[in-house]
Amino acid sequence: MTAGQERDPLASLPPRPDSSTGEPLPPPGLAFRGSDRAPEEDPGRELRLSHKPKPPKGMGPVLSWHRESTRGKLVMVVSAFGVMVVGMSLGGLFRWGDPFGWMAMWQIWLIVLAGTYLISAPFTFRVDSVGPDWFQMHLYRWGVRTAHRVVRLYELSKVELTGATSGFHLALFDKHGGAVDLGLQDYQHDRKMWDLVYNGILHSVAQGAEVNDLAARLLHIKEALAAYGSDDRAPRPDEIETDTLTDEQIRDVMRDAEVRRITELAGLPIDVSPAEFREMVPVVYEKNLSPQEAHDDDAVGDDDVVGGFISSAKLTEDQVHDLMNLDGVRRVMEVVELPSDASPDEFRAMFPMIPGVYFVELARRGAAGPNATAE
Fold it and tell me: Is this prediction's pTM over 0.85?
């Protein structure tokens, strides 16, 4: 990418895990309604590795998987049988005044058994699994695989959430014709599974995948994209990644008054090599390529982004704490469900790049950190 070209809309999102290792794992996804308990603490979940599914051909490893255990299925069968018996007893009570008279009729028992079978599907097992960039579903009936679906999470073309009597259903469609349509809870068997799915959804939507209103609203997709600086899938056209610039262009940027001021406010060194500058400031703006006069703080609006982005890894713990106390940053932390008492390391992991405008705000409040200087 050269000066003037649009920055990659994915640059500010959590990185895509490596397809072969699954690292780094994405941050917590929003709208998680499952349980945070470990798989081994779920008595209804299969843990035997002999039941662990294989990844789709040519794709990365399985990072999380779920299959109902035999015990879990037995509990479901017993529960379904109990529901049928209670239902029949209530029906007998209201119809004939006798809640147990139906038990002497073998025909009714056939209905109870049929209902139990339909509700619990005792010989049907579904196996859901997720990898670094894929999600797959296997369906087995009487020990025979009857369905297999795979979807590429980072190449989705459509994300659709619909309501049903059994709850919400989330359908994912990729650009290669793959599709998976399951209950929302089936993507949320555990936190890791949902985090991997959610990160793929964000990346796909940022690249233009279609998302219906219900999915956007209930999955908090717009809020998440806004929190990561990719709101409405429209990155600023004048954003430039510094690793695409030549050393001479970097020196021009370093001479820009606005950039110098923001790096000073961030408490970062100014006289560094181009390579060190690229590490500190991953993103700048096209206007920064031409040295400018200093700007007045009062001319900067609350919604402006000045001086590009600063790498949070270069900030001190005091500076991170100061940032976390800003109202705008706290609102973003709430959206991504990062606790207000999170550690600086947790904050850096969630927000690897910080818009320069926040350092202007810190300077206004006189809290830009011990190494910062405000003009």
Answer: no
